[in-house]
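Need tokens for this chain, all 153 residues.
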Amino acid sequence: MGELRVGDPAPEFTLQDENGKERKMSDYRGKQVILFFYPADDTPGCTKEVCNFRDDYSAYEGAGAELIGVSPDGSKSHTKFIDKFDLPFTLLADTEHVVGKLYGVWGPKKIFGREYVGMKRTTFLISKDGVIAEIFENVKPAVHSEQVLAALA
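Here are the structure tokens for all 153 residues:
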């Protein structure tokens, strides 16, 4: 599959959530979905990003949008992360990087001059009919929730 663009159908997938329950993209048809990919649980940038989503959660609920986070961490790590920061939304475990690759967000990264492969901090706003409405790349954790809420408005 080539690079995803606005207007493309959101690729279907099945992943386990923090409780080990299988979740499918198609389960959310009829709702707007904020599908956000982040590198790792309980790291400074990722914690800032998810806590901003948590703090703005009532605005997402008011907009009828479902927040779903995806990282390479497993379900147990997600459970600890959710409990530690009181996160009110689902986190999915992409331990094999299948969905990251499907959405084009698993790949080469560079930080402090060091190159490695990992999850790129990227968010997809998916419409009620399962189409990608907006893509946020190179996300800044501290202001990202504001950007997403502005796009929902």
